[in-house]
Amino acid sequence: MKDASSHTRPVNLILLGPPGAGKGTQARMLEQRFGLVQLSTGDLLRGAVAAGTAAGKAAKAVMEAGELVSDEIVLAVLKDRLDAPDVAAGTILDGFPRTAAQAEALDALLAERGQKIDAVISLEVDDEAMVARVAGRFTCAACGEGYHDDFKPPSVAGVCDKCGGTEMIRRADDNAETVRTRLGAYHAQTAPLISYYASRKVLTRVPAMGAIDDIARDLGAIIGKVTAGT
Ligand code: AMP
User: CA–CA separation, 156 vs 164, rounded Å?
Assistant: First the structure.
């Protein structure tokens, strides 16, 4: 189903939730359907690390430790991306904002562009399950399809079901110890944004321990209402 044509101005959505909640998986499923672009600051930072830029060099050790990269660096990489022409129709922000300062900076960045946050969805999950989910995950290097050692192994070990690729990548920070640090950072610095956006009346909480397709259906219904009103 395609709802891409149903909004006439840029729409900006935020997916909030701890590591492993499914933000990236859901954002990738929703972007095409609604004509929006997934914007993951984690992906942007990993790109900067791989490219060896100054921002990447500064971020690398912090990311490997599971701590938050400084607002200054994160905002710099995000700003660059926001100015790319393909994000003109709107964004699904995944992993950003993660601090109150980032949330305020985001409002200012969008206001400069005549835009705003239209909806914030909090994916509600159990922390303990997140450690197992994140510690076993890996992706196909060629097409980005996500897998998991226990919950979603490829049909043939080492071969991507989707594209036949044979190179799989595991993130350096997807181990049990670092996930616990990342969960700690989420609760200390990011979870307060749930009440911040609730008080602005843009927040919806979605139970997100179920099947990926069921959650995508729930999110699609919420986003469909948002885009229909634009
Ligand atoms: P993610 O891919 O969203 O899980 O992010 C991976 C890592 O990148 C995080 O553990 C942080 O070290 C860093 N990171 C990503 N987004 C942000 C952000 N908005 N603020 C600070 N650090 C971030």
Answer: 10
What is the layout of strands, in order, in the sheet containing 137-140?
A: 146-148, 137-140, 168-169
Q: Which of 23, 46, 60, 133 is catalytic?
A: 23
Cβ density class 10-48: b for 16+ within 10 Å, e for less: bbbbbbbbbbbbbbbbbbbbbbebbbbbbbbbbbbbbeb
Query: How far, in Å, is the centroid of ligand 1 from the Cα of 42?
Result: 5
Q: Which of 81, 152, 170, 171 is catalytic?
A: 171
pTM for the model stands at 0.93
pLDDT in tens, 119-142: 999 999 999 899 999 999 999 999
Which helix (H) or strand (E) element contains residue 122? strand 119-124
Nearest atom of ligand 1 to the alpha carbon of 40: 3
Cβ neighbours of 220 (radius 10 Å): 17
**Any residues with Cβ below 6 Å from ligand 1, and which?**
19, 40-42, 45, 62-63, 66-69, 74, 95-96, 98, 102, 173, 182
Among 185, 180, 147, residue whose Cα is nearest residue 163: 147
Q: If you search the block for the tokens 């921002």, which residue do you land on?
A: 55
Asked if residue 2 has pLDDT above 90, the reply is: no
